Amino acid sequence: MKMWIIGGTSEGVRLAKTLDPRTYIVSVVTEESLEFLPEEAEVHIGSMDKNGMVDFIKDHDICAVIDMSHPFAKIVSKEGRGAAEICAIPYYRHLRPLGEGGDILFKDYASCAEYISKHKGTFYFTTGSKHSDLFQSARGENRHIYRIIPSEKSIHILREAGVEMKDMVAMLGPFDYAMNYALFKHAEADYLVTKNSGEGSGFYEKINVAKDLNMTSLVISTEGEEGYDFDELSAITERISNEILLSLLHQ
């Protein structure tokens, strides 16, 4: 019997490091995430749909789903919640407090892309590679620069979207004020395109630099969810972990 931690965020790593590795299994999408997790942790690599998640829960005797995925990973959370309901086990969603700020707010990627298609300049994207095809379709004569994690998959997605190597910045965060300042200034960017990924995600460090460099910040928001903050989830998982350890003693 184990907890299933849906990982992929710094909070997921932080939570895993506080728990006994015998009491959980972590799932991540790519191998790059392995270097941040405890060496002794059991890790599943690869994405799953809801049916795959149901099988995963049954195969690993999962007693609770702890969703530590990114605030914008809506499909993952929806499928994880659905799989937990099918298997009649608890589902707990971690929520970051949303940040405040930015010049122009958008409800989704499509509305942001529409805005970009009607304006001129150099746009600096810190939204990852996933929606680069949408933004590239709105590029026109503008320059689009994408800061992504240094993974083969992310670079491949950008190449498939038609992004040239000179417009890729493959670096691993976190990025503080000074690093963001240097990168944005070197790019001579007019616009920052970012997600409101919540406090602790580097959101404010980007927004503040953009303001000081007279850039316009385009912020994509996420719909509100119900869930637990880190301290609440830490207490919940500690209780479940202790129950699992107690059951192991009686085996």
Automatic annotation (TrEMBL):
Record key words, sorted: Cobalamin biosynthesis, Oxidoreductase
InterPro entries in the record: Precorrin-6x_reduct (IPR003723)
Protein origin, superkingdom: Bacteria
Record-level Gene Ontology MF annotations: precorrin-6A reductase activity
Leader peptide range in chain numbering: none
Protein's pathway: Cofactor biosynthesis; adenosylcobalamin biosynthesis
Name of a matching Pfam family: CbiJ
GO BP annotations, alphabetical order: cobalamin biosynthetic process
Protein name: Precorrin-6x reductase CbiJ/CobK
Organism, as annotated: Aedoeadaptatus coxii
